[in-house]
Amino acid sequence: MKPAMETAMEENPEQSQEKKGCFECCIKCLGGVPYASLVATILCFSGVALFCGCGHVALTGTVSILENHFSKTVSDHALLTEVVQLMQYIIYGIASFFFLYGIILLAEGFYTTSAVKELHSEFKTTACGRCISGMFVFLTYVLGVAWLGVFGFSAVPVFLFYNMWSTCQVLNSPMANMTSSIESICVDVRQYGIIPWNAAPGKACGAVLGEICNTSEFYLSYHLYIVACAGAGATVIALIHFLMILSANWAYLKDASHMHVYQDIKMKEEQELQDIQSRSKEQLSSYT
C-alpha cells in the first residue's frame, strides 16, 4: 500500500501545482527586492534619527548649562538661544526631508532593479527615467558632501565637552586634591566664542566646576552629542552607499537602453531581409 501522503498528492495534482506556483511567485518577488537600497535606507533613517533626536535634546541641555552656570544675564546668551532654536528648526526640516528622500530612493531602487531583472525582455526604459536616475545621482552626491560638513560640525561640541570632562577628571584626581591650587583649575567657555567676553561669570573653577561636572545635564548632553556625531557618520556612509547603488543602476539602465536600440535595429533588418526574400520569390514565381 502507498503512504497516505502520496495517495493524497496523486488525488490532488492540481493543488500541488498551485502550491508550487505560489512558491515560485514568492521567490520571484523576493528576487525583485533591492536589498542594497533597503539596507542603505535603514542605515540612513537610523543615522538621521540619531542625529536629529539626540542633537535636539543635547542643544537644549547645553543652553540650560550655560544659563545656570556660565551666563547669568539673559542679554549675554540671547543670540546663542536664537541660534539654538534656529538649529532645532533646521533639525525638524532635515528629519522630514530625509524621511521623504529615503522613501524616494528606495522606490528608485525598486524601479531600477525591475529594469535590470528584465534587461532582455520587453521592458522599455525611457529617456525621462534615465534622466531622473542621473538627477538622483547628482543630488545624492551633493547631499553626501553636505553631510560630511555636518559630520565635522557635530564633532565640535563633542570636542568642547571632552575638554570640559578632561578638566573635571584632573579636578577629581588625587594629585589635585593634595594641592591647594584647585581653584586655579577652570573652564572658560568665552574663549570658544559661545558667549561674549563681557559675560559673567563666563567661567567655572574649582568646586563650582566639580558641581557642574556631577550634574546629569552635563553627562546627558555629552553622551547625546557623541551619539549625534555617530548618527551623522552613519548618514554619510548611507549616502555613499546610495551613491554607489544609483551609479550602478544608472549604468545598467543606460546599457539596457542601448541593448533595446540594438535589438530594434536588428529586428528591422531581419524584417527587411525577409521582405526582400519574399519579393524575390514572388518575382521568380511570376517569371516561371
SSE order, one letter for each helix or strand: HHHHHHEEHH
So how many helices?
8
How many distinct beta strands? 2
The structure class reads mainly alpha
Integer average pLDDT: 78
Report low-confidence residues grouped into runs of 5 or more. Answer: 1-11, 13-19, 119-123
Major beta sheet summary: 2 strands, antiparallel
Q: What descriptors fit this protein?
A:
two-stranded antiparallel ribbon
Please give a structural write-up.
- The protein has 288 residues and is an all-alpha fold.
- A two-stranded antiparallel ribbon has the order 1-2.
- It has helices at 4-11, 13-31, 35-70, 78-117, 127-171, 174-178, 206-213, 216-287, and strands at 186-188, 203-205.
- Mean pLDDT is 78; it is low at 1-11, 13-19 and 119-123.
Structure summary:
By secondary structure, this protein is mostly helical. The protein has helices at residues 4-11, 13-31, 35-70, 78-117, 127-171, 174-178, 206-213, 216-287, and strands at residues 186-188, 203-205.
Structural topology:
Elements: H1 4-11, H2 13-31, H3 35-70, H4 78-117, H5 127-171, H6 174-178, E1 186-188, E2 203-205, H7 206-213, H8 216-287
Antiparallel strand pairs: 1-2
